[in-house]
TrEMBL record:
Domain (GOLD) ranges: 12-110
UniProt entry tagged with the keyword Nucleus: no
Taxonomic lineage of the native organism: Eukaryota, Metazoa, Chordata, Craniata, Vertebrata
Alphabetic keyword roster: Endoplasmic reticulum, Membrane, Signal, Transmembrane, Transmembrane helix
Cellular compartments per GO CC: endoplasmic reticulum membrane
Pfam families: EMP24_GP25L
Subcellular location: Endoplasmic reticulum membrane; Membrane
Transmembrane segments: 168-187
Keyword Acyltransferase: no
Protein name: TMD11 protein
Bilayer disposition of the protein: Single-pass type I membrane protein
Length: 200
């Protein structure tokens, strides 16, 4: 997931990321502050920091840390579901002027593992191949875990759809019975009215 969004200097912005359990999530971000004189976002925003907060589906805070204007954060999910990742600058400006806008570039990678530096520095080809093979096996485990998670979600969605269809069917039957009952009651009322008025 790669994106950027705008935010006020003291405004909190959050995104939701659906993550399987026991999965590593790595996020890279860069903050740019609007320069009112240049009418543009300079490449860096020195002195500006970002509070990064990650909340689990059960509302537990998994990560809460202050980083610089550019950085990398990571966390491992403890449970599957929607994780809320929030960003808020540590700006001391209390009033949001027209020039206090921030642009936050964000790149989130789910399930990726840090490449071991020993792989890069390995002089021995056998060691390098072994380490790369271990990395590939980790990625295969992650893909398998991701597939199982998607299968569980699909099964849950199918069950919900079947329950909804069943409820719709019963509601249609109840509506039909109500309409038939009202029709019978109206016919009986009209018949009794005509008999009372001696029209039949």
């Amino acid at each position: 997931l790669g994106l950027y969004f705008h935010s006020g200097e003291r405004e909190e912005k959050c995104i939701i990321e659906d993550v399987p359990s026991d999965t590593l999530v790595i996020g890279n971000y860069k903050v740019q502050r609007w320069d009112i004189h240049q009418h543009d976002f300079p490449e860096s925003a020195p002195g500006l920091g970002m509070f990064v907060t990650v909340t689990t589906p059960s509302a537990e805070v998994l990560l809460s840390k202050l980083y610089g204007p550019q950085g990398t954060f990571s966390f491992t999910s403890e449970e599957s579901g929607d994780h809320i990742i929030c960003f808020q600058s540590n700006s001391t400006r209390f009033v949001s002027f027209g020039g206090s806008k921030l642009r936050i570039h964000l790149d989130i990678r789910v399930g990726e593992h840090f490449i071991d530096e020993s792989v890069v520095q390995a002089k021995d080809k056998v060691t390098e191949v072994t380490l790369r093979l271990g990395h590939l096996i980790e990625q295969i485990h992650h893909v398998s875990k991701e597939q199982n998670y998607e299968r569980e979600r699909e099964e849950k969605f199918r069950k919900t759809s079947e329950e909804t269809n069943s409820n719709i069917l019963w509601w249609a039957i109840v509506q039909t019975l109500i309409l038939i009952s009202i029709g019978i009651w109206q016919i009986k009322s009209l018949r009794d009215f005509f008999i009372a008025k001696k029209l039949v």
